[in-house]
Request: fold
Amino acid sequence: MGRFRLSVVVPAYNNAPLLDLTLGGLARQTMPAADFEVIVNDDGSPVPLAPAVDKYADRLNVTCVRAERNRGRSAGRNAGAARAGADVVVFVDADTVAHPALLERHAAYHEGRGGRPGVLLGERFDIDWAAAGALLRGESPTPAMLDAYRGDPRDGHTAHPQHRRDFARAPWLLGFTHNASVDKATFDAVGGFDEAIVKWGLEDSELFYRVFHHHGGPPDLFARDPEAIAYHMPHYRPTGELLGTLDNIRYIARKHPRYDFEAMHSPATLGQVMGRVRLYSDAVAACRRAGLGRPAVLPAEVRAGLTDRTLIAGYGVSRLPLGPGSHTFDQDAPIDETNWHRLGLMLHDFRTGQFAQFVHIDLWRCLMPDDLSLLVTKGLRKADRIVLVASHAAPDAASMLPVPFVEDVEYAARMLEARFDVATTVHEEATLLTVR
Reply:
């Protein structure tokens, strides 16, 4: 037997009946069983899952890898992928039933790329009782069982044409590994899933975030295939597990302190978050081209005050003679412990009152109105005052489109004066809004 076309990795814990459905779906694939392998990782189930896996030994090239203790889905997927013999790894969850053509769709995508790296995200139907009943009887769900209310949750978030275009800029946001494939070389190169993420949620998005940046963010690296279908079976979801996602967001944001992940601060839809990733990525580039965000525009009295506990955002600001306890968001310096590539929408890593001031040079002008409000609200919890610096040598708002840009600084001041104490001072090269 030659190399497999695909290695299918199924992380599983403690629910043999659902795993049986998952393996049954893989046993009914249009792809010949000789062309793929299935690796089940039993993540320390109290009752071993090997007997449920062994039922399919005559129909599948299937292996069960057991961990003696529960280590979480990241570690389980990594253990399964470590055994993979194919050049492409497909991840399918153990509460998911594959459409008969699922593996052929994944294989065709990767084989069509001629050896280039790539990620395919399949479609997930979040089915309810009728479709689940059909699958339990070994039947295929009918169209009536798969309407919009039982479809892929990502579809509703990305229905707007602009959101679909934004997918190329932040595809990792839609990277759900219940039904996804990636070339093994890329998976190994980025180090697989982060095993420090043990709570529910976002371990897959974090993996694909690294995949996206590892290859430099090409627009065709990720694809979605509405014909690569899997059915997500109904199952109990403890509220505590869902709340664990909040802890994961905080952990991942600290691991990747960049403006693109920072866009997840908002309870917006996934489509809107993708839009913010695009807008703010373009904003950082546009401000750099326009020569904005430079500390040279800071008045002498502001420079003199950068001696103690300053958080400052801009380009080249880490080269300023800052005092102890300071931190920078310098887009032109490498990320390290005291310099991040954020804009200031996620500030939870800092203590309340940690800074004497938060100085923000020009980049604040590229925030959407609700995000500017968020920046000020959060910033005043971490700093005694916020100094919003607006360079006079700036382009007009129309020329910056589609990037948002505050051209009328007085309007922004009036907006903030409704809630805060705002002092406006005009200097030779910049206008300053000091917010308390």
About this structure: Residues 166 and 427 are 39 Å apart (CA to CA).
